[in-house]
Design brief:
single chain; 152 residues; 2 helices; 11% helix
């Protein structure tokens, strides 16, 4: 075990992925609820590809948590590249009020990834080392004065 810990230190010559929230928009709306899509760019500044494992996140509107989830990232950020990821946040109007006007939002979460290199992959697979990076972003969404209407 001591050898595994010592070897894990050798995997630290890389940079974790950089995460940037690039968009937040209402994707679907119905009388029962809405789905907000959160767009995130994951950038890899390393010379080797970086597989992304999973994202765990929470979305709040007006200071109130309205959605939390875990999603498989299903992506690998190529070397020196950027990968776009879209996360859904479903809001159930029977549990939360219909948002109207300008509403503050916050998204927080973490991304588990596999560090570059064969040794890092082995340590990840056996559960010894699962690196992650946290992210957080605040902004506002203008829901206007419209509310969902019943569809015929």
């Amino acid at each position: 075990m001591l050898l595994a810990v010592a070897l894990a230190g050798g995997c630290s010559s890389y940079s974790p992925p950089q995460l940037n929230i690039t968009g937040v928009r209402v994707a679907q709306e119905s009388p029962e609820g809405m789905v907000i899509e959160l767009s995130i760019d994951a950038s890899n500044t390393n010379e080797k590809d970086m597989p992304l494992e999973r994202l765990t996140y929470q979305f709040s509107l007006g200071g109130r948590p309205v959605f939390s989830g875990t999603r498989s990232a299903e992506a690998t950020v190529r070397r020196l590249g950027t990968q776009s990821i879209v996360l859904p946040a479903a809001i159930d109007f029977s549990r939360f009020p219909v948002p109207q006007g300008q509403v503050e939002y916050e998204i927080t979460g973490s991304l588990v990834y596999v560090a570059p290199g064969e040794l890092a992959q082995i340590l990840f697979d056996v559960g010894v080392r699962r690196p992650s990076v946290r992210f957080s972003h605040r902004g506002s969404i203008d829901f206007g004065q419209t509310t969902p209407t019943e569809q015929p």
